[in-house]
Amino acid sequence: VSTQSTWEAVVSTQSTWEAVVSTQSTWEAVVSTQSTWEAVVSTQSTWEAVVSTQSTWGIERWMGENCCNFIIDASVFLSNKKGYPVLAKAHQKFFHKFMVRDMRLVVTNATENYDHYVQYLQHLKHRQPPLSQSEMFEQPYWDVLQAPLQPLMDNLGNSTYETFERDPVKYAQYERAIALRLSEMERDDENPIVVMVVGAGRGPLVDCALRASAAEEKPIRVFAVEKNPNAVVTLQHRNKSDWGGVVTIVEQDMRAWEPPELADILVSELLGSFGDNELSPECLDGAQRLLKPESGISIPCDYTAYAAPICTSRLWSAC
After folding, report:
1. What does the pLDDT profile of the chain (319 residues) look like in tens digits?
2. Of 139, 158, 162, 177, which sees the most CB atoms within 10 A?
3. Are 66 and 317 in contact (CB under 8 A)?
């Protein structure tokens, strides 16, 4: 990779071919070439590229390409004060992104001291910042097409719930929304606000409701409705160990449950990972009867699902 304006890409396929482009951006040129030569492009390619300094967006676009090797010409390297080969900061940033995914780097045209190049690239790899706990958890899902979950039909496992619960932004917003509604209501200990969490899972929304109640100093009565027997066991344990037994656990489908009283606030997170794979409208439509007809509210009160087109030859090749 070089900061020259003209770049050269060489792809190892059944028949090696070469493209030289100077007018398009590197990524656009490669994608255009792939489209033209789709019949001969291997599922895993080796690229030799002369790439101008990449923006963050430019680097991210390369992450979707199905590259397994990068060939770096020795002329790309600079020399440090001791005369050892090093890469410019922009190139280090570029390759750090790919090293996380075990991309192999190959140096060519090194006339002497080849081991210095190898040692430097090994040093660059060892300097990689460690993956965060969240990234380590998500790593098995990188570059993998996932079938949408169907929790109404299938009972989810603990690992799936754990993935949901690692979203700090969503639950912070839920807690804010519940607190806002509680702040608008006046109740006392003898007449607490009724909060029903439908599709409670392992209880993250119950946590949100209890924290919001404590913050607003408003008494609440919480019902956690969950049909998954595995999750219900967790809810029962947490009710004893974390919630002081104040939560009523209901092991039943929300659409069939007959509540002892109606809810002031109905809380759910049923939208799902793609579109409506959790049958949110169907479930929540059947749960509307749980709300007080005049004053009850649902959180969320509405939502919008978006679909965005993407281009990633890595996933295309995996299909």
Report:
1. 333 333 333 333 333 333 333 334 666 776 676 666 554 444 455 555 444 444 555 666 777 777 667 788 888 899 999 999 999 888 887 777 777 777 777 888 888 888 999 899 888 888 888 888 777 777 777 777 777 777 778 788 887 888 788 887 899 999 999 999 999 998 887 899 999 999 999 999 999 999 999 999 999 999 999 999 999 999 999 999 999 999 999 999 999 999 999 999 999 998 766 666 677 888 888 899 999 999 999 999 888 878 888 777 777 776 6
2. 177
3. yes
Burial of residue 144 (number of CB atoms within 10 Å: 0-12, 13-18, 19+): exposed
Contacts of 312 (CB under 8 A, 6+ apart): 64, 65, 143
The whole-model pTM stands at: 0.67
Continuous segment of H or E residues that includes residue 222: strand 220-225
DSSP code of residue 290: G
Q: At residue 129, what are phi and psi to the nearest 5 degrees? A: -60, 140
| Nearest residue to 314 (alpha-carbon basis) of 79, 26, 31, 112 | 31
Q: What residues act catalytically? A: 269, 278
Backbone phi and psi for residue 220, each to the nearest 5 degrees, phi listed first: -135, 155
Element (H, E) at 317: helix 313-318
Please state, in angstroms and rounded to a whole number, the distance separating the CA atoms of residues 285 and 289: 8
Half-sphere exposure of 118 (CA within 13 A, CB side): 4
Query: What does the block give as tokens for 294?
Result: 């005049």
Backbone angles phi, psi at 133, to 5 degrees: -60, -40
Handedness of CA 186, 189, 195, 201 (dihedral sign): positive
Specify whether the CB–CB gap between 48 and 9 falls below 8 A: yes
Alpha-carbon span 154 to 176, nearest angstrom: 31
